[in-house]
């Protein structure tokens, strides 16, 4: 099995796509006015309109209701990313911070309130962990 994508359901596809394009530097593929994909070598972030929810099943998803998942983006330099995101991000949860598991992380909220973690492996152990995952 291979993990393929994470999908965010939103009331504002255009706004969320614009945010993620600005925050990541990745141009979204707009497959439909109600659906977009941002592709990376390790996976995809899909953004879908709440108008798609009935296709999934009654009350299968609700926009702006998530408070339990963080999306993690591996970046080359968290501190540079922090500088780049000034003017793009409205809510910074923290400034770049060294985490006990070896990453330097920056947590922000997207326009729908979803938690986003931009991180860089900061210790040799963390760097080795992500180097091994890139080879798999």
From TrEMBL:
Residue ranges occupied by any VOC domain in the UniProt entry: 2-121
Domain of life assignment: Bacteria
Matching InterPro entries: Glyas_Bleomycin-R_OHBP_Dase (IPR029068), Glyas_Fos-R_dOase_dom (IPR004360), VOC_core (IPR037523)
Coiled-coil residue spans: none
Name of this chain's protein: Glyoxalase
């Amino acid at each position: 099995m291979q993990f393929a994508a994470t999908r965010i359901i939103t009331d504002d596809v255009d706004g969320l796509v614009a945010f993620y394009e600005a925050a990541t530097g990745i141009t979204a593929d707009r497959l439909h006015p109600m659906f977009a994909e941002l592709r990376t070598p390790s996976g995809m972030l899909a953004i879908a309109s709440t108008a798609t929810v009935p296709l999934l099943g009654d009350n299968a998803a609700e926009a702006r209701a998530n408070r339990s998942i963080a999306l993690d983006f591996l970046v080359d330099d968290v501190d540079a990313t922090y500088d780049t995101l000034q003017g793009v991000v409205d809510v910074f949860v923290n400034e770049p911070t060294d985490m006990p598991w070896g990453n330097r992380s920056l947590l922000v909220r997207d326009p729908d309130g979803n938690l986003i973690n931009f991180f860089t492996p900061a210790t040799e152990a963390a760097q080795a962990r992500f180097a091994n995952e890139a080879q798999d």
